[in-house]
Structures are given as structure tokens and as C-alpha cells.
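Item description
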Amino acid sequence: MIKYTLSCDSGHSFDGWFSSSADFDRQAELGLVSCPVCGSVSVAKELMAPSVSTSRKKDEAKVLMMDQARKEAVAKIRELVTAIRENSDDVGEKFPEEARKIHYGEAEERGLIGKATADEARALLEEGIEIAPLPVLPDDVN
């Protein structure tokens, strides 16, 4: 992709992304490139310095890609946590007790969320009761 700085015949400056120089020429010729400010289709490329790829720019691009991938992953995790919360009973501090009742058939099977100390969680796991902590996401603590 090539990023061009463009300007219209009214002097408005804006950016546009194209797959190639020929792609810009074709779109401009067909009147598909227009000024976002005034709508003019009389658009030209402005003089630009060439973009030289350096290892620093490549490293910055990798960081940006990782940031985007991280944001997408956190959004998916947030969706899952929301779905779990919406489809579970929040039993608060009674979580270990309620989890045992379900495990031993003393209560109806259902999704639970709640709180347990590290020792309580360890004891549940040792009894063969499947539990997992819900993740605390970055925005949840700010």
C-alpha cells in the first residue's frame, strides 16, 4: 500500500491509501477520489519525501501489530468473561460451598462464579472439582 498526501483544487490537504501509483491514477481518472472537506474530484498528489524502511520503522510496525493483536485478544477474552458472567450464578463468598454441593449432587448443576481463597481453590481442585479463575483484564483495574 502507498500512502499519498493529496490536495484538491480548493487547497484542502488530506491522505489517501492506494495499492499502487497506477491505482491512484485510475481512481482519480474515474472521479473516485474526492476531497473529504469539499467533495471536489479535482485531486492531485502533493510532493512527498520517499519513505525509507529502516529497522527502527520495522520494529515500530511490529509493536503496532502486536498492540492491535493484543487489543483484539483482550476484546475476545472480555466477550467470553461477559458471557460467563451473564450465564452463571454469582454466589460470592459461598463459591466453595456451592461448588461442592453441585459436584456431590446436592444441588442442581449450573454455572457458578464467586470468590475463593487460594487455599479453598486448592482444596476444590484436590477434590476433583473443576474450577478456573476469571481473568482480570487491564481496563478492569483502572
About this structure: The CA atoms of residues 74 and 120 lie 28 Å apart. Helices lie at 21-29, 55-86, 95-103, 118-126. The chain has two domains: 2-45, 55-136. The two ends are 37 Å apart (CA to CA).
